[in-house]
Amino acid sequence: MTTETVELRFAPDTDTAGTFKGTASAYGVLDSHGTEFAPGAFAASIAERRADGSRFPLLLHHDLARVAGAITELRDTPTGLEVVGKFTLGTPAGDEGYRLARDGALSLSVGFRRLSDRPRPGGGRIITEARLVECSAVAVASNPRTRIVEVRSTAARGAANQRESTMDTNTEAAPETRAEDTETTETADTGHETRAAVETLTGAVNELRSTVEADRARLDKLESRSGRAGVTAPANDGATETRAFSHYLRTGTVPAEVRSMTTLDDTAGGYTVPETFIRELVKDLVEFSPVRSIARVAPTSGGSIVLPKRTDGTTATWTAETAARTSSEPTFGRLEFPVHELATYCDVSNVLLEDSGLDIAAELRRDLAEAFGKAEGTAFVTGSGVGQPLGLLNSGIATVASGSATAVTADGLIDTLYALPSAYARRGVWGMNRATIGAVRKLKSGDGQYLWQDALSAGAPATILGRPVVEMPDMPNVSSGTYPVVFGDFSQFRIFDRVALTVKRDDYTQQANGLVRFHARRRLAAGVQKAEAFRLMVVSAS
Predict the structure, then answer these.
(1) Which pLDDT belongs to residue 347?
(2) Confidence at residue 388, expressed as pLDDT on a 0 to 100 scale
């Protein structure tokens, strides 16, 4: 028996017409948007609604103008989000939804705001927490295992005929007759006739049960097949999301693909950028913000990230058999990474927006990637920590002298490599700008071998002393007293994305000039988690 983790009840009236039951979201199932929900993803939302006593609306096809009823009961189970709802009969949307659901033409879907997620093995994302906004009856659900399993018609038809199954057959409606029941129905006068009738009924029930089980098995096969990539639930190629986003950029109106854009969650009037757009933006950001490509990146839902930090560990001492023992206790501190905001805007002419031959989303992505990438790339290296992340050069990282007051030397690189503890050095990456790379490529060991080794295969990084090199444009040039080279384990540099990207269209500010202004913003936190995992080379003779 499964245990329900959260339950919200509003005393549903299951004896009236229009009441239905179903699965609004099935956990652990890859949907057509390339995402799946983890068990308990909606638990917090349900608890919030339970506290304020409100209900989630039931919409048709995620259309805010077509409210068809309300969700009266929610159960967040280990396998999915189970719902009980009611179509409001007598309204156009309610009557339409009720008739279509009764005929098996509708399934269920959810409108939500994604709060946190993680990468999904094999591709896509697993949503671990989401804010539920609405539930919709839809013709084609993105999750292949959501469904309406029961719709009730008018109470006047009697309890036996109230239940109209649209997606499943209730095999308990005609239970198999037991042997002891057969014996008690026989009488001295009509025993043979009664027994024959019961046997006939039993045979019919068994035949019905076999048919139901066969149908159930066939449906399971169809569902399994629909979950395979390339059939009815293909891997998310982003076409719907990108098309919807481009529609918004061009016209400033919300397109029909409301579910993919989750516009319902943005009460400030902004427009959440589709997931595919965000993934491509991050790829472009790497070109201008190379630290992001090797750092440890994670989402966050808070305004500040606090991590516990052990500042002193326990110690052990040798002791005699009966001698007193020495106590020691670990001490702990905390690391805090405040979230900062990046913002910009750009103007696009009405002519370009109206030109269907131009990929507006791609053009905007490139512009934003350059603006945000340059800004965050600089902050990750030189950030002051005031209104921006604290960068590598200002994080108290230990230094190693280059061995020359004016240049980077081979001995200085070797000293830097071996100054780092081995636990970090074996995952270490070199970082320097292009001018410094040009100087380092000329350095040789005592036997005349270059320290720089080009990649042996396409796509692999070049190496210095066996460790990969990443070009970081914001590292200083080589000159006396500067820090042109960093070496360290960049998994100890943390980046927390709070708001990946939001875009707001301003139709009025620049309309006198024939332009539409787009405001974009990101929020993130970043910084060094362990300074001991890095070393900076300082240009100095000693």
Answers:
(1) 87
(2) 95
118: nearest Cα among 240, 35, 57: 35
Q: How long is the chain?
A: 542
Does 440 reside within a domain? yes
Residue 188 CB: number of other CB atoms within 10 A?
5
Its sign, for the CA torsion 431, 433, 438, 439, is negative
User: By C-alpha distance, which of 329, 368, 323 is closest to 345?
Assistant: 368
Range of the domain at 368: 270-312+332-542
For the cut 90, the answer to whether the pLDDT of residue 414 exceeds it is yes
For residue 328, the 8-state DSSP code is -
Q: Which amino acid is at 540?
A: S
257 burial via Cβ count (<10 Å: 0-12, 13-18, 19+): middle
What local confidence, expressed as pLDDT, does residue 230 receive? Answer: 38
Secondary element (H or E) of residue 51? helix 43-52
Of the candidates 297, 12, 32, the one whose C-alpha atom is nearest the C-alpha of residue 145 is 32
- How sure is the predictor about 420, in pLDDT bands with cuts at 50, 70 and 90? very high
Among 30-39, 323-332, 338-347, the minimum mean pLDDT is found in 323-332
Q: Kindly report the CATH number assigned to the domain that includes residue 501.
A: 3.30.2400.10
